[in-house]
From TrEMBL:
It comes from Paraglaciecola chathamensis S18K6. Keywords: Coiled coil, Ion channel, Ion transport, Membrane, Transmembrane, Transmembrane helix, Transport. Gene3D superfamilies: 1.10.287.70, Voltage-gated potassium channels. Chain C. One of its GO terms (cellular component) is voltage-gated sodium channel complex. This is Voltage-gated sodium channel. It is found in: Membrane. The chain crosses the membrane at residues 21-39, 51-70, 138-160, 204-228.
Length: 282
């Protein structure tokens, strides 16, 4: 019973909204602390940041331990990808930053501690999962975009090479120039330069911008939004199942209710027995 009561306390701590907010605050503070270390500071401030860094590491270790102990089946804890992710980040962040050989690795890992925001906030998890699931569909869009890039780069290199070899000298440079055009980085300067020789070259740039910056960008947004809607629907269904299960547990009959129900059944059995005896006598 002591173990069960202790586990119940860990479950309450894990589910407490204030505890979640405090964990998020510590993660944000950890990210700010990493940024503060990039500035020059006095020895006193340096030692203070070292102390705070170890405090944050100890807190994360305690937090992940509480989540592990609150799990009813300990093996299921590591079946969750986000639990494994958090555990790895916490364990690796315990690498001593003072060690010259491991200092760089330790600092990099401490930067990645901010990624724990994703595992803590469900909405961020949905965003990341949606992006990952959208990658296969986005791959075909990217392939089609590369084909359009390659065709326009070949055309640009053929027509505009003599105008400006630095921008259109070969197909690789032409691809970089087209990327500059797609991102609207002084693309009008490139267009006006070629229009001095080919007055209708504006058609080349406008059609390319329409295909890449407008059409393909909207396709990418549409795919990601569609996958996000599916993930949000799955999250709502999962939440509804959890609420229904919790509601069923809350309405589970107590021992006294069961005793009353058993007594009622006994009375019905006795009445049936009495009726049967009377019919046999007749």
């Amino acid at each position: 019973m002591n173990a069960l009561s202790l586990q119940a306390k860990f479950i309450r701590i894990r589910s407490n909204k204030l505890f979640e907010i405090f964990v998020i605050s510590v993660i944000i503070f950890s990210a700010l602390l990493v940024g503060a270390k990039t500035y020059e500071m006095s020895p006193t401030m340096y030692h203070l940041t070292q102390f705070l860094d170890w405090f944050i590491s100890a807190f994360f270790l305690t937090e992940i331990t509480i989540r592990f102990l609150a799990e009813e089946r300990k093996k299921d804890f590591f079946k969750n990808f986000w639990n494994v992710f958090d555990t790895l980040i916490v364990i690796v962040s315990l690498i001593p930053a003072e060690d010259a050989d491991l200092a760089v690795i330790a600092r990099l890992v401490r930067v990645f501690r901010v990624l724990r925001m994703i595992s803590i906030i469900p909405e961020l998890r949905i965003l990341l999962v949606s992006l990952v699931k959208a990658l296969p569909q986005l791959g075909y869009v990217m392939l089609l975009m590369f084909i359009i890039f390659y065709i326009y780069a070949a055309i640009g290199s053929t027509l505009f090479e003599n105008i400006n070899p630095d921008l259109w000298g070969d197909i690789a440079i032409s691809l970089l120039t087209l990327f500059r055009v797609m991102t609207f980085e002084d693309w009008t300067d490139v267009m006006y330069e070629t229009m001095e020789v080919y007055p209708l070259s504006w058609v080349f740039y406008l059609t390319f911008i329409f295909f890449t910056a407008f059409a393909f960008l909207n396709m990418v947004i549409g795919i990601v939004v569609s996958v996000m809607e599916q993930e949000n629907e799955l999250a709502r269904k999962q939440k509804a199942k959890e609420d229904a299960a919790e509601h069923d547990l809350e309405e589970e009959p107590t021992l006294s209710d069961l005793l009353v129900h058993i007594k009622g059944l006994q009375q019905q059995v006795e009445q049936l027995g009495a009726q049967t005896t009377k019919q046999e006598k007749k």
